[in-house]
Design brief:
globular, GMP Synthetase, Chain A, domain 3, about 90 residues, two-stranded antiparallel ribbon, alpha+beta, about 25% helix, 5 strands
């Protein structure tokens, strides 16, 4: 499912949500899926759009209902996939 979620791009940053480390947990059950996700900032203006696009993309991939839970972790660049922050010069 994570590979399918690479289609979901944060419009402000221009990177996908998997690269950014926003997907914190995924669960796949026989009848449903569940994703725990965080945002890059607490008041991300694109949060509703990203949550809905993530739900829709994963639901289409799994072919079953998917729920999204907002995690409480604060995002920081160390959560990004290895090498993803290189272009930013962060590490």
């Amino acid at each position: 499912m994570r590979e399918a979620l690479r289609e979901v791009v944060d419009p402000e940053i221009g990177m996908n949500i998997v690269e950014l480390g926003l997907i914190r947990n995924t669960e796949i059950h026989d009848d449903r899926g569940h994703i725990t996700m965080i945002m890059t900032t607490p008041f991300c203006p694109y949060a509703p759009q990203l949550l809905e696009q993530t739900r829709r993309t994963s639901q289409n991939y799994l072919r079953r209902p998917v729920t999204i839970e907002m995690g409480l972790e604060m995002w920081d660049p160390s959560m990004m996939e290895e090498g993803a922050a290189d272009d930013w010069g962060l590490f």
